[in-house]
Amino acid sequence: MDFSRNIKILTWQGFFIGFSLWSAIAAIYFSKVSGSYMLGLSIFSIANISGSLFEIPTGIFSDKIGRKYTTMLGGLAYTISGIFYAIGLNYWWLIIGAIMGGLGRSFYSGNNDALLYDSLNRSDKKEELEKFMGFIGSAEQWALGISALIGGILAAKYSFSLVMWLSVIPLFLCFITSFWLIEINNKINNENNMLTHLKEAIKNFIHNKKLRLLSLSSIIGFGISEAGFQFRSVFVATLWPLWAVGMSQMMSNIGAAIGFGISGKVLNKIRSVNILLFDMVYSKFVNLTSLIFPTVMSPGIMATSSILYGPSSVAESSLLQKEFTDKQRATMGSLNSFGKSVSFAISALLLGWIADLISPRIALIWGQLFGLISVWLMWKLFKLTKKEKLLPTAVEDLADDTT
Questions:
Q1: Closest CA to 335 of 227, 214, 174, 192
Q2: Is the distance from CB of 225 to CB of 218 less than 8 angstroms?
């Protein structure tokens, strides 16, 4: 059976998910409908909280029932979410959209990486995981960049409502294309009940130090950086006109798309942990400098860090997949996504609260400072992997001495 079809469909779905015309103006739209920055950002928080609540059962659902059906349900939930966002009569309609969006993301999060890994494994291409993750990520980022520019222009020239309704179309295409996926049976996943399955997945995190450090750094870093990225359009709007806000995000997405496209080659030459650490340090420096000394150039300067987003995302996903067990692969991915969702929800609410209290710029500065925790955790992982790399040499030297 040709499992390469799954890889093609997952790439297209990455593009459809990315082609979100409202992505560049979402924080502005949600804040307008709800009446405050905090309530506007709370929509992102609710989406992530609902996603975190659904993460574990959907991960187990994927391992127990199947990757294809999980992807289908994810596409359907995303479509319903987009419809409620587009209706957007008041804050409560946005909340329903956020809950459904969280459900859709939870169906996709651990499942799609597991489906890609399984498909490559059955096609004897497991060693090309980083390359194909890069292709999918690049497709999503190109779509985000193109749609961000178009969405910003349409919002300024016509209306936010038009942008939101047009964004439903690619989400519906995600649902439709899921019907052509090929299911991959994995009998090993049906041995235990769900509670035992979950306990085993949690134990793997507890007993694997490398996985703990990687996961914690990922969880904290994602929550703070993603909340800041979603809110950045409000900061950009204080420096650039509304129609150009999408251009700012487009630059970030194009940089990320290029980064994803070359991630396979980069990771063949540079260790994954090195890429992750360098990305964190550089992005924190660039963002803090641009926020502390804001100018009309700040959005463009901040966008330069996006070139590293692709390789670092692929590096993180690849490292996680290599540490996950085959038996709980999707469940462990969902556990990690669960932590990310909770972290994002807390970070978004804090940023919104600080923005209402002081200003969006100060809120973003505090977010960057809190994000230094993830840099410290990644530094510890870097030192741990460096020791592991040196260990075989030390053992060989000891063996030579004894002989």
A1: 214
A2: no
Complete DSSP assignment for 331-388: HHHHHHHHHHHHHHHHHHHHHHHHHHHT-HHHHHHHHHHHTHHHHHHHHHHHHHHHHH
Q: How far is CA 92 from CA 52, 182, 346, in A?
A: 20, 38, 20
Residue 221 is assigned to a structural domain of this protein: yes
402 within domain boundaries: no
From the number of C-beta atoms within 10 Å of its C-beta (0-12, 13-18, 19+), residue 330 rates as buried
Domain-embedded: residue 398: no
Looking up residue 354, the CATH number of its domain turns out to be 1.20.1250.20
Q: What digits encode the pLDDT tens for the residues 319-374?
A: 887 777 766 666 777 777 778 878 888 888 898 899 889 998 999 999 999 989 98
Range of the domain at 356: 4-183+193-391
Residue 188 lies inside a defined structural domain of this protein? no
Total domains in the chain come to 1
pLDDT tens figures, 274-284:
888 998 999 99
Question: pLDDT value at position 330?
Answer: 66
